[in-house]
Structures are given as structure tokens and as C-alpha cells.
Amino acid sequence: PGLRVEVVAEIDSTNSELMRRARDGRNAPVLLVAVRQTAGRGRMGRPWQSAQDAGEPPSLTFSLGLPLAPRDWSGLSLAVGASVAESLDPTQAAGVKLKWPNDVWKEERKLAGILIETALLQPDASDRYLVIGIGINVGPREAVGLNTPPAWLKEWRPDITPGEVLREIVVPLVRDVLLFNDRGFVPFAARFAERDVLRGRDVRLSDGTEGHCEGVGWGGELLVRTAAGVQLISSAEVSVRPQ
Ligand code: BTN
Predict the structure, then answer these.
(1) Which residue among 134, 148, 169 has the greatest number of ligand 1 atoms within 8 angstroms of its CB, and so is best to mutate?
(2) 10 Å Cβ neighbour count for 17?
(3) Which residue intervals of the chain bear CATH 3.30.930.10?
(4) What are φ and ψ of residue 181, in 5° steps?
(5) Which long-range contacts (CB under 8 A, 24 or more apart) does 57-60 make?
(6) Is the CB of 204 under 6 A from ligand 1?
(7) pLDDT of the chain along its 243 residues, tens only?
(8) Protein fold of 202-240
(9) Do residues 139 and 58 touch, judged by C-beta distance below 8 A?
């Protein structure tokens, strides 16, 4: 209710568009779906590109924008990842997992990426316009521009279309974002832990730190045991060390 849905054939980036609107004071709840992005963006300034077929687009790209004022923003990206992973694979039969902070993985390959951005609505206020951008590899063609070969939904659901994927994801996603707004990360901690691919593995952080991952904390921090004790990591790139 109250969520306007817009579908456009082509745009630079659904996240960029909603951030531009927020800066212009347009902060109504909206779901912006693009059939094609010409300048899709990923985390850490990386591009998000999808191969383009003449026919059905091989990836689903959209952003959900809404004003939000949680007491604490930490863990939001993990909560969003958990919501998306549960919608894509409710019983975990397909092995859809989460790699901290918010990649959706299947068998060590990336199935979906999430880029969260926020715009301040008023100076000094806690409410912000939240833009959650999600790209899901539907297939059958491989998305390009990624470091490692991606996974795609059609591997196990050959007849699924991007529109059907969107319908499966959006209602639970909005519900979960509102739950996060009210209660923060705590209700999501166990849901994330169920699919956490890093817990119990040896990891390496982008700053060179190596240790054993002990899962995530109540604020969504990555817990890494090193020689110096357990560290709470709130932002880093993490890779799994070969066993
Ligand atoms: C990542 O894995 O680094 C995040 C990728 C996020 C891609 C989505 S596609 C829809 C939205 N618009 C963008 O420009 N990026 C996000």
C-alpha cells in the first residue's frame, strides 16, 4: 500500500535516479524497475553490468526507495540480503546463502548484489531516504563485469522470468525493511546466521587481517577471531581463505 511502481525500459542506474530524486526533495515510497541499465553501479565504486539479450533481459534490476528512521542503521544490508535469499530459496533446497555483508551466493558464486545508499532528508534529522538497489542474475546468459563467474536463477528454475522474481521478492522485502525500521537487526540475526557462508571458515579482510570467522554480532558486525582476540568488523571486503 502506498508504494508506487515504475517500470522503465532504460536508465543509467535505478539507484542513481532515486538518489537524484531524493536530493530534489522527492521522497515518496517507490519501486523503480529498469529493463536495462546503462551505468549500473555496484559496491565500492564497481560497475554492475548485465549482458543484454535482444529478448528477455537476463537480470532483474530495481531499486526500492522509501523514507526511514530506524534508531540504528547497522545491519540493514544483512537484513535485506536475508530477505532476498529467503524469497529466492525459502527451503534452502537450492543452497542460496549469504556472504557478509550482503552478497547473495549460490555454491560460492554470486547470484545477486545489493547496493544500499541513503540521502539525508533534513539536516541533523535521523530520517533518511533509503535506496535499496538489487540486481539478480536470472539468466540464462552470464552477467559480465564480475570478478568471478556468477550463478543464475534459471539454473534451478528454468522457466522463471524477471517479472515473477520481482513479484516473489518485493512484498516480503518491504515488510522486512519496516521490521528493521522498528526493531533493528536483532530479529534478523538468526535468519542471517542460517545462511552465513563465512561462519566457521578462515577469512582474509581487505586490510590483510586473517582470522577465523565466528559469524555476525547483534549489530551485524562480522566477528573474526585473530591472535589478538575477537574483532568486530563493521566494514571491509572479505574473502574466504582456501582450506
Ligand atoms: C554489488 O554487488 O556490488 C551491488 C550490485 C547492485 C546492483 C543493483 S542493480 C539495481 C541497482 N542500480 C544500480 O546501479 N545498482 C543496483
Answers:
(1) 134
(2) 20
(3) 4-193
(4) -60, -40
(5) 57/138, 57/162, 58/137, 58/138, 58/139, 58/140, 58/141, 58/142, 58/143, 58/152, 59/135, 59/136, 59/137, 59/138, 59/143, 59/162, 60/33, 60/134, 60/135, 60/136, 60/138, 60/162, 60/165, 60/166
(6) no
(7) 589 999 999 999 999 999 999 999 999 999 999 999 999 999 888 888 765 544 455 889 999 999 998 888 999 999 999 999 999 999 999 999 999 998 999 988 899 999 999 998 777 667 899 999 999 999 876 545 555 678 899 999 999 999 999 999 999 999 999 999 999 999 999 999 999 999 999 999 999 999 999 999 999 999 999 999 999 999 888 888 765
(8) SH3 type barrels. (2.30.30)
(9) yes
> For residue 236, what pLDDT is reported?
81
Taking the centre of ligand 1 as the mean of its atom positions, its distance from the CA of residue 33, in whole angstroms, is: 12
- Tell me where in the chain the CATH 2.30.30 domain(s) lie: 202-240
CB of 137 closer than 6 A to ligand 1? Answer: no
3-state secondary structure of 129: strand
User: Are 222 and 189 contacting, i.e. CB atoms less than 8 angstroms apart?
Assistant: no
CA distances from 6 to 42, 108, 152 (A): 21, 33, 25
User: Can you name the CATH fold of 4-193?
Assistant: BirA Bifunctional Protein; domain 2 (3.30.930)
- The predicted complex's ipTM stands at 0.99
Do 11 and 17 form a contact (C-beta atoms < 8 A)?
yes
